Amino acid sequence: MANKLSLKIITPSRNMFEGEVDMVIMRTMSGDVGILYGHQPMVTVLDYGVLTIKNDGEDKLAAVLGGFAEINAEGMSILTDAAEWSDEIDVLRAQRAKERAEARLRNTQANSDIRRAELALKRALVRLDLGANNKQAK
Ligand code: ATP
Fold it and tell me: Using a 6 Å cutoff on CB, does residue 98 contact ligand 1?
């Protein structure tokens, strides 16, 4: 049997995941990257996106809103300010965040506000995408 990858996902509020998995697909700044056991050491910046953990034929999905991934001989660690499993996503909250961001984008003048609103909108869209899919799956 193929060796498994040790994975940890850490947020400011919890150790979200710790275990051995077959594969991780993460959203980096240059696109989705799949990581298997034995991947070369690296540190990469994460984009907002869906993280897929593949193990024993099952997929576990989480919204990961930025952060870093480090891969070394011990395994893979993801450090992020915010991450939610698909069934933890509050779809209504994300919908409201989306509407707030869209309203700010319509009204705002300052560049820094535009950037912040764009980022908030992008976080909300990732959550809505995953949260809505989760709803359908139930
Ligand atoms: P909001 O404006 O609704 O707070 P945000 O994008 O500014 O959204 P973040 O700063 O990314 O929120 O996250 C703050 C905390 O709230 C994190 O712990 C994150 O996991 C959680 N969180 C944010 N939005 C949701 C959501 N829709 N469902 C579940 N948890 C969420």
Answer: no
